[in-house]
Amino acid sequence: MDRTAQLTARVTGRGIAYDPLGTAPSGTSLHVRAARVLAANWTGTSTVPSRYLYPHQWSWDSAFIAIGLRHLSPLRAQTELETLLAAQWGDGRVPHIVFSPSVPLDAYFPSPDFWRSSTAGRAAGAPRTVQTSGIVQPPVHALAAWLVHRADPGLSWARGFLARVYPRLAAWHRYLLRRRDLGGGGLVSVVHPWEQGMDNSPCWDGSLARVTPAPAHSFRRADLAHGAPEDRPTDLDYGRYVRLAADYRDGGYADGEGEFAVEDGGHRCRGGEFAVEDPSFNALLIASEHALARIATELGSPGTARHARAERLTAALVERLWDDASGMFLCRDLRGGPIRERSVSGLVPLLLPGLPREVAAALLGTLRGPHFAARTGLVPSYDLRGPAFEPNRYWRGPAWFNTAWLVERGLRAQGEKAAADALRTAFLRAAGDSGFAEYVDPDTGEACGAPGFGWTAALTLDLLHDTDGAVETGREGGDRG
């Protein structure tokens, strides 16, 4: 049996790699509706999160979207990731936005003329032929690439998909591990709230308080034309986001140029006004490092070193960010120490196969406890009992579908099938009832943000198809992804 035939044989009985809409699995109506959202948001080479609110390509959105697209069209899923990675910078970073030249500048802020990637990012190897932002987003991409490959290995091998994306993904991880270990403890730091993906989380309030906001007259918020002000970040927070991004741009997008003393540790760290180690960002890097090891093995190279690195990162995550008193992982401000706010970011490490048993057990207890047990059965983005909780404001309490998907997969990774099934059911119900909203009120399920949201539709498809549900993130396990 040749190589392609062997790979194709492995997925027999795994589920559906491609099926026309008329032969969809159970939940056909929801399947068709989700597929229509992705069709409406498809540009020909990538998928926008929202035609009106987010009219460009976003980094981690595209990774989640590819995970869902693999069930409709593995070719489109591969193209999604290839388009994003084609905009990678020379230093390895994958920018958080790839701008479409056909979209007017005033349709989204910050626009390409704010980031000035091809000039301000020249020393960091920004591409000359496409405009991007200069910051990054969580590294879900290797995990997405592995799952996309598994959906149709024959097509993947015929197109050379893994062989082409592997070096780019390796360079992406290398950038993070070498350039963003600003605390010196082995974990990656984010230098802007937008990089972590949970942009407006109360976890950032204390760190952002050090930042002088950009003057209100210096920018125009395009988001308020398409979203209710009470659902969006405040003008003060937005002004601080703009200031951080402008300072990073004006420094040539260089990482860790400044140095400061850490009050509680006596050693010195690198970074600007905002430098935070985040559990979700690092957990996704670990999961993707395991996936990159699987890709390396598939290409004929040993993945042992990458698995070992993932295990070292897991140990560093526990050592630096685990908090016994909270029963979960906390963010760490490199200037100020642990950030004592509970957010969904601290639950995402459930994905990881190498968690100590007592840590996993405590996480499960926290997830089921009063801080995160919402009436809808979804997972709020922030502590239901926290002082900054707002059920409808961006990342300050609403339930998001991408984090629900990650926690659902984490529950399955920890052997919690009944809890995972319940979260899956709640996800599918809320996604359908809300019209595939960007996010929802965690107690009422009321739709918030943009309707017809890309990753909501994509991850709905994934949960409809992949009923086994476990994401392959460790050394063991069969072809379950």
Outline the structure in words:
Strand 9 and strand 10 (337-338) form a beta hairpin. It contains 18 helices and 13 strands. It has 481 residues and is mainly alpha-helical. The strands form 5 sheets. It has a 4-stranded antiparallel β-sheet. The chain has a 3-stranded antiparallel β-sheet with strand order 11-12-13.
Topology (elements, then pairings):
Blueprint: H1 3-10, H2 28-41, E1 57-58, H3 59-69, H4 74-85, E2 97-98, H5 112-115, H6 117-120, H7 141-151, H8 153-159, H9 161-179, E3 189-190, H10 193-196, H11 205-208, H12 235-250, E4 259-261, E5 268-270, E6 276-277, H13 279-298, H14 304-321, E7 322-323, E8 328-329, E9 332-333, E10 337-338, H15 357-368, E11 399-400, H16 401-413, H17 417-433, E12 439-440, E13 447-448, H18 454-465
Antiparallel strand pairs: 1-2, 3-6, 4-5, 6-9, 7-8, 9-10, 11-12, 12-13
Helix pairs in contact: 1-8, 2-18, 3-4, 3-7, 3-18, 4-7, 4-9, 7-8, 7-9, 7-13, 9-13, 13-14, 16-17, 17-18
